[in-house]
Design brief:
- Helix content is about 20%, strand content about 35%.
- It has one domain: RNA polymerase II/Efflux pump adaptor protein, barrel-sandwich hybrid domain (OB fold (Dihydrolipoamide Acetyltransferase, E2P)), CATH 2.40.50.
- It has four helices and nine strands, in the order βββαβββββααβα.
- A hairpin with a 2-residue loop joins strand 2 and strand 3.
- It has a six-stranded antiparallel β-sheet with strand order 1-2-3-9-8-5. Strands 4-6-7 form a three-stranded antiparallel β-sheet.
- The chain is an alpha+beta fold and about 120 residues long.
Length: about 120
């Protein structure tokens, strides 16, 4: 899987794509590979303002449940209902399957995230 150059990444394996003051957040291809077949995604934080590194939802695979964390602070504007109803889409294309759309509170926090190259080094790719 190609890791997009314009994404930023967390050490917890979330990605973020920024469009103005709005950001889309998902899990990386590496994360979905490690999880295996994803069967359920739960996000109940719509409308909430969360801090960076705060849990925004959970993702359940056949053998495990993992928390998902905010890469940056902001208000959850939208949940991707497409992946809620068809969680297997995350396995098919993790970098197109965003989880939440966020209005960023502090875009400067993006400087704390990993570049594509730094993330690939982290995962040993």
């Amino acid at each position: 899987m190609e890791y997009p150059q314009n994404f930023k990444f967390t050490k917890d394996h979330e990605w973020i794509r920024v469009d103005g003051n709005v950001a889309y957040v998902g899990i990386t291809d590496y994360a979905q590979e490690q999880l295996g077949d994803i069967v359920f995604i739960e996000i109940e934080t719509l409308g909430q303002t969360l801090s960076a590194e705060q849990k925004f939802g959970t993702i359940e695979a056949v053998k495990t449940v993992s928390d998902m964390y905010m890469p940056i602070s902001g208000e959850i504007l939208e949940i991707n209902q497409d992946i809620i109803s068809s969680p297997e889409k995350v396995n098919q294309n993790a970098h197109e399957s965003w989880m939440v759309k966020v209005e960023m509170s502090n875009p400067a926090e993006l400087n704390n995230l990993l570049s594509k190259d730094a993330y690939l080094k982290l995962i040993g790719a």
